[in-house]
């Protein structure tokens, strides 16, 4: 696997290192030893799968607060999507900066989303399917979300969303007390 920096500390695009022959190819999509050698968390406890029927379906921006903060490793296994992460680590030099990349069944790239980042995506094709590994179990009491078009994030989406859940539309404007679990 190749771990390519996104410019946001600890966040990577992961590319497969294919071994090809006349049958096709073989590649590791996950290897605990390679993740550890790269200094990345690899304690996977859950694997999630989502199908979005329509182009322009937006899911995000989601994350969990400590002590249930999670790492996500996201891959598109059918269709294509634009995957976005936002650094919510207050002490980080890239605080509130975002990074986005196209993940598709064809390019087989994955996004490594560290703890302390919000994550979301918009589908670029009908019937797009995402598959992601996480290092924490879902904890509703630690769940948070930021609206995809919150001006504090200034995310540059490649297309306008056409389908967004009510829950994702109703996330409050970014504020540190609520979104980072600090203060009052």
Descriptive notes:
The chain has 184 residues and is mainly β. The radius of gyration is 16 Å and the shape is globular. The strands form three sheets. The protein has a six-stranded antiparallel sheet with strand order 1-2-10-7-12-5, with no helix packed on it. Strands 6, 8, 9, 11, 13 and 14 form a six-stranded mixed sheet that branches. The protein has one domain: Jelly Rolls. β1 (2-5) and β2 form a beta hairpin. It has helices at 32-37, 166-169, 176-180; strands at 2-5, 12-15, 19-21, 24-26, 46-52, 57-64, 72-78, 80-87, 98-104, 110-113, 117-123, 128-134, 143-145, 163-164.
As for the number of domains, it is 1
Order of helices and strands: EEEEHEEEEEEEEEEHH
Shape designation: globular
Class per helix and strand makeup: mainly beta
CATH architecture: Sandwich
Distance between the termini: 43 Å
Instruction: State the share of residues found in helices, binned by percent.
Output: under 10%
Report Rg: 16 Å
Q: Which SSEs are present, and which pair or pack?
A:
Elements: E1 2-5, E2 12-15, E3 19-21, E4 24-26, H1 32-37, E5 46-52, E6 57-64, E7 72-78, E8 80-87, E9 98-104, E10 110-113, E11 117-123, E12 128-134, E13 143-145, E14 163-164, H2 166-169, H3 176-180
Short description:
The protein is mainly β and 184 residues long. It has helices at 32-37, 166-169, 176-180; strands at residues 2-5, 12-15, 19-21, 24-26, 46-52, 57-64, 72-78, 80-87, 98-104, 110-113, 117-123, 128-134, 143-145, 163-164.
């Amino acid at each position: 696997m190749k771990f390519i920096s996104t410019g946001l500390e600890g966040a990577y695009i992961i590319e497969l290192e294919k071994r090809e022959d006349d049958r096709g190819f073989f590649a590791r999509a996950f290897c605990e030893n390679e993740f550890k050698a790269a200094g990345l968390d690899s304690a996977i406890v859950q694997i999630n799968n989502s199908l979005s029927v329509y182009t322009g379906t937006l899911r995000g921006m989601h994350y969990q607060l400590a002590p249930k903060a999670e790492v996500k490793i996201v891959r598109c296994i059918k269709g294509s999507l634009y995957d976005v992460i936002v650094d919510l680590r207050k002490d980080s030099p890239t605080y509130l900066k975002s990074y986005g990349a196209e993940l598709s069944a064809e390019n087989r790239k994955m996004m490594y989303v560290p703890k302390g980042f919000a994550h979301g995506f918009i589908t670029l094709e009908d019937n797009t399917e995402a598959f992601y590994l996480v290092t924490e179990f879902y904890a509703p009491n630690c769940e948070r979300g930021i609206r995809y078009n919150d001006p504090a994030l200034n995310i540059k989406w490649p297309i306008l969303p056409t389908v967004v859940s009510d829950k994702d539309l109703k996330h409050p404007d970014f504020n540190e007390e609520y979104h980072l679990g600090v203060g009052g």
